Amino acid sequence: MDLGISGKIALVTGADSGIGWETARVLLEEGATVVLTDKNPEKLTQAAEKIGYKDKVFHYPADITSINDLKMIHQKIAKEVGKIDILVQSAGITGAQGLFHELDDAGWTNTIEVDLLGPVRLVNEFLPDLRTGGWGRIVFIASEDAVQPYDDEIPYCCAKAGILALSKVLSRTYALEGLLVNSVSPAFIETPMTDAMMEKRAEELNVSKEEAIQSFLDKKRPYLELKRRGQAEEVAAVIAFLCSDKASFVNGSNYRVDAGSVATI
Asked: pTM of the predicted model, to two decimals?
């Protein structure tokens, strides 16, 4: 399918692996030039080399919670690539886990800093680019947790609920300028983040990783009807659609890619 984004410039955060990397790959296949960013310079370089498309891939390490880092990569992108047309915010962490009375202020602060204030700072830095030219796309990666919170992931749930609110407000503010803003909410996708979660669970339960995954599906995600972890490319396909001309009448929406994991309609 021709998504109509050939020649567009996309910035993808959290792009050294998982959903971010797969999204970058799909956008490249569709003819876009893609800038990858993530915190670890070595892993980011490896991700850029693995993805190919050498003439259309740029990569700059940055921490999205750092205003100085964001200004630095913005200057480099403007000089070496051009103004971005598409922003995909995929960077994030699981953050502090535990029941409410088990969480401390540092756990809350770190999770909100990365998963909510990081995206806010990112958009604040690149919004002037996206408001020019009469065409732009922002896609936030939220989570099923935003609308179906879990009692042992409270800071993450609150941050992702904030992402949905941020996405909706931005979609109302800039639509008439041609900037469309949407979000995608995955559930239990096979990524390094959920790998770490399942390895920790396997250790706690003294079982194999595969057994930990199955018990998590049975006990923690009973409405995830396909009974498996999703694949990053399954999420990336939806993100790429929302970045495209095919989604020219989609604005302020949240697309759930969760195999039914969210119980409500």
From this structure: 0.95
